[in-house]
Each structure stands twice: as C-alpha cells, then as structure tokens.
Write a sequence for this structure.
C-alpha cells in the first residue's frame, strides 16, 4: 500500500493488488481492503488473497514494494490475477463475444460528468454500442460484461482500471481524456494487458465536459480499421502474444 493507493481505488487495483502477489507463502500480507464500496473485498476474494485484518502490528522484518511501472514482473502478476478472476467468477453466458460497450462512470468517484452524455449515448447506440453503468455493478457483473467486449468507450478514471482485468487481449479501449487533467497513465495500463488503446481529448464545459461527437466518430472509424487487422482473443485469460500498438 502507498498513500496514493489509500486515496484512490484505481491505484489500489492497479498497484496494490498486483503487489500483493509478491508475498511469499510464509509471509503475512498487509493489504488494506478499502471500505468505500464492495469492489475491493470482491477482488481480494476472487484473487484468493488472505490479508491480515486491519490493525497495528509489530513487524520484525517488513518487505515494502513500490511497483508503479508495467515491467515484466508486474505484467506476469496481472496475467495471474486475470486468470484467478476468470477461474473464480463464472462467465454466466450473459453476453455474446464481439460487443461494443459504453462504460458509464456516472456519479461514482470524483465527479467527472459529460455535459452532452445523452447525445453521446445516442450517437454510440446508433453505432451498435450497448451501455453499462458502473453504479450498482459488482465485480462479477463487470467481469461477465467486458470479457466479451470488442471495443469500449469510457471517460478517463478509476472505473477503467476494472477493464485491465476483464477485457480480452486485442480489444480496443478508447479513453475520453479531459484536457484539464491530461494523463497517459492509461496507455501503460492498456499495453500491459495487450489492449489496443485509443484517446480522444475532451474540453471542460459548464456542466462538466463536452465530447466532440464528430471527432469521436472519426476515432471509432480509426479503431475499427485497426481491429480489422488483428484478432480479438475472447478466452478469459487471453494470449500474451498479442501486442497491439496505440492508435
């Protein structure tokens, strides 16, 4: 755990959870299970981890890891976590492979609202997209929905970190990036699990952010062209050999 992992769920999921797999069988695991919702506890259970209860401990020997980059060791642990989630969360056969999904952040986390979201959703549904709401969804719901997704559009935020553990290798994740908080950390996350990353910068508006729908359609066309050149592996664990480049 780091101060950032304590503050933000996305960093807990992307950094603290994979680091927990570094614990040896004879070591106690100190991993706080966040209480701001059920997702952290659900991930810990599905990942077959057994952290100590929160408390005060005297440690005569303590190993502390800072594990921010997406190197070979971390990629291997991400693959292990994906395999554990696939094994412990049944597929449910709720969704067919090849779907396109708009992952709606809603009012979860720090407010990041899209002013013209209704218009955005109409544009995407006209292109065959389905809408999935994070609010009220369990980890099992997220896993079952996105294991079969071919393309996902979502605003930048911690909700996208769920997708690193669910989307199949070779699938395309298009991030709507606010221009006033531009970050490319999602590029590293996507490449670590062999997703095809795409980005569209969106500007602040009176009621949040506004998506330029013409630019979005152009981005979708670019993504479709790239997806035609490479297969999407819809197995739950995926194929590490797939290594797409950014759009």
């Amino acid at each position: 755990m780091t101060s950032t992992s304590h503050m933000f769920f996305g960093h807990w999921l992307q950094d603290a959870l994979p680091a927990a797999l570094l614990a040896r069988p004879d070591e106690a695991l100190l991993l706080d299970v966040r209480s701001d919702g059920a997702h952290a506890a659900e991930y810990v259970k599905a990942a077959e981890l057994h952290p100590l209860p929160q408390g005060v401990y005297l440690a005569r020997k303590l190993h502390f890891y800072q594990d921010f980059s997406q190197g070979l060791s971390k990629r291997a642990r991400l693959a292990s976590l994906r395999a554990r989630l696939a094994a412990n969360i049944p597929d449910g056969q709720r969704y067919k492979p090849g779907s396109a999904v708009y992952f709606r952040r809603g009012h979860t986390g720090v407010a990041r609202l899209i002013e013209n979201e209704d218009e955005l959703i109409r544009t995407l549904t006209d292109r065959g997209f389905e809408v999935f709401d994070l609010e009220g969804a369990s980890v099992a719901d997220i896993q079952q929905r996105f294991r079969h997704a071919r393309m996902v559009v979502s605003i930048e935020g911690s909700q996208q970190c769920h997708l690193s553990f669910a989307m199949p290798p070779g699938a395309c994740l298009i991030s709507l990036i606010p221009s006033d908080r531009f970050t490319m950390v999602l590029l590293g996350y996507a490449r670590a699990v062999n997703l095809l990353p795409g980005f569209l910068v969106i500007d602040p508006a009176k009621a949040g952010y506004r998506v330029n729908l013409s630019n979005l359609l152009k981005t979708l066309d670019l993504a479709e062209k790239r997806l035609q050149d490479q297969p999407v592996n819809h197995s739950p664990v995926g194929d590490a050999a797939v290594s797409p480049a950014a759009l």
Observations:
- The helical segments are 3-7, 9-20, 39-46, 72-88, 117-126, 139-146, 185-192, 213-228.
- The mean pLDDT is 88.
